[in-house]
Amino acid sequence: MKVSKSAYYDWCKRPGKLIGAQELQLRRRIKELFKATRSSLGSRKMMKALRAEGFEIGRYRVRRLMDQMGLKVTQRVAYKVTTKRKHSDSVAGNLLNQNFNPVGPNQIWAGDVTYCRTGEGWMYLAVVMDLYSRRIVGWAIDKTMTTSLVLRALITAYNLRRPSKGLVFHSDRGSQYTSKRYRKQLQRFGMRASMGDVGACWDNAVVERFFGSLKHDWLFKVSQPTREHMKRDVAAYIRYYHLKRLHSANGGRSPVNHELLFKNVSGFS
Question: What processes does the entry annotate via GO biological process terms (predicted)?
Answer without folding.
Answer: DNA integration
